[in-house]
């Protein structure tokens, strides 16, 4: 994959130098703090409409806002990030008013031009507000939908980290699936009826042996449950699978969305329907965070203990087998930890893969060196990546002496 943007540390857009200095003095903004976790791209119908979104969750002190767009301006070589939709959404968030964004790990853009934001309401380790789901018009930044999850279904440890937007036959028929990596739960939101419920299963829990991470020789412990989620391509009138996995685990799981969307299945209790959740027999060799599936059913994800980007043919049941899972790329520098991946159709209708990578082992151990390049947004055409991997159903891997043509198209 090609590096499109890179930072030694994140820079944020302020109206004046005086405002920026005041933010630094008050520690609203601490240079060297802040970690990008997710990326998404909106192309629109005209080049002027293109937006590159990034998320910066507030698990570190000194992060002034949590959702932004990458501008074409730089400071000390670092692309400047502007707040989305505006600064107003990040003022006085502790009041928990309706126009707030506290902290966001991941986002989703649907085919109807809406940016779905999963705000977990947590700053550092403190729960400030109830988690909420927001939808904005991507072009205008206007709020299109807001839903605050009830205290009746969330817990004190709830940490919402990943969001999937399941748009059915029309833009009004939408269900949202939200992963809670600390409560080990997937929350389902029926947008049309403005109601949510919790789905819980043992497959959403972390595996203790996979709670210790080793990235380029640095070890640290994280016991994160369900985090990675991906929807297979939607075909009108048919069922759909939601794939998911706990980050601190080697397994991949799936459930039909028709089951998740059926609220009555969970009225007997969160763990009352174990038969609807399925786990592949094969396993990954290491932990993985985000995942995504393209229009042909190929899944892409990082193998974060090996600094690799991998793919899997979801039409195969042989998860983990060499015949259906392949390594696309290995890079100790640019693929240290893949935290966000998205498949996006560009203005020509060509699918692209976008990813955010970080030295998460240094973030976690507070050893980030701001004199080095630390954070990257990478992109590539899907066809260039998937060519010859064997991850596309019906295709065969290239012989070992051949390589894939990387045109990137940028």
Automatic annotation (TrEMBL):
GO cellular component: extracellular region
SUPFAM superfamilies: Quinoprotein alcohol dehydrogenase-like (SSF50998)
Subcellular localization, as worded in the UniProt entry: Secreted
Pfam families: MRJP (PF03022)
Keyword set, alphabetical order: Glycoprotein, Secreted, Signal
Keyword Transit peptide belongs to the record: no
Membership in a protein family: Belongs to the major royal jelly protein family.
PANTHER family in UniProt: GH10609P-RELATED, PROTEIN YELLOW-RELATED
Protein name stated in the entry: Uncharacterized protein
The species this protein was found in: Acanthoscelides obtectus
């Amino acid at each position: 994959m090609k590096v499109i943007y890179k930072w030694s540390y994140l820079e944020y857009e302020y109206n004046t130098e005086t405002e920026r200095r005041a933010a630094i003095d008050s520690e609203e903004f601490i240079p060297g703090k802040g970690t990008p976790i997710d990326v998404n791209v909106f192309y629109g119908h005209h080049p002027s409409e293109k937006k590159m979104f990034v998320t910066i969750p507030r698990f570190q002190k000194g992060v002034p806002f949590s959702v932004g767009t990458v501008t074409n301006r730089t400071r000390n070589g670092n692309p400047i990030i502007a707040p989305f939709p505006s600064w107003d959404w990040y003022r006085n968030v502790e009041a928990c008013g309706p126009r707030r964004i506290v902290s966001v790990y991941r986002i989703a853009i649907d085919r109807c031009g809406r940016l779905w934001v999963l705000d977990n309401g947590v700053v550092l380790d403190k729960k400030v507000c109830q988690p909420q789901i927001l939808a904005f018009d991507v072009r205008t930044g206007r709020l299109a939908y807001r839903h605050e999850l009830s205290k009746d279904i969330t817990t004190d440890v709830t940490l919402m980290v990943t969001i999937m937007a399941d748009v059915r036959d029309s833009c009004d028929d939408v269900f949202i699936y939200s992963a809670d990596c600390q409560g080990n739960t997937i929350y389902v939101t029926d947008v049309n009826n403005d109601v949510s419920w919790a789905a819980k299963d043992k497959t959403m829990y972390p595996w203790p042996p996979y709670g210790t991470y080793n990235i380029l020789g640095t070890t640290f412990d994280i016991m994160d449950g369900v985090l990675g989620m991906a929807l297979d391509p939607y075909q009108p009138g048919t069922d759909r699978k939601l794939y998911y996995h706990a980050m601190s685990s080697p397994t991949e799981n799936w459930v039909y969305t028709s089951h998740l969307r059926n609220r009555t299945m969970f009225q007997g209790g969160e763990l009352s329907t174990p038969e609807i959740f399925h786990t592949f027999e094969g396993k990954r060799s290491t932990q993985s965070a985000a995942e995504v599936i393209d229009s042909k059913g190929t899944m892409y994800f990082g193998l974060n203990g090996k600094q690799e980007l991998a793919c899997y043919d979801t039409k195969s049941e042989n998860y983990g087998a060499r015949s259906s899972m392949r390594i696309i790329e290995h890079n100790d520098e640019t693929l240290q930890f893949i935290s966000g991946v998205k498949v996006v159709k560009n203005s020509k209708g060509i699918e692209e893969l976008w990813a955010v990578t970080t030295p998460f082992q240094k973030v976690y151990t507070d050893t980030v060196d701001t004199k080095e390049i630390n954070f990257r947004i990478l992109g590539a055409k899907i066809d260039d990546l998937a060519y010859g991997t064997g991850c596309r159903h019906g295709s065969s891997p290239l012989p070992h002496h051949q390589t894939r043509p990387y045109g990137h198209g940028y």
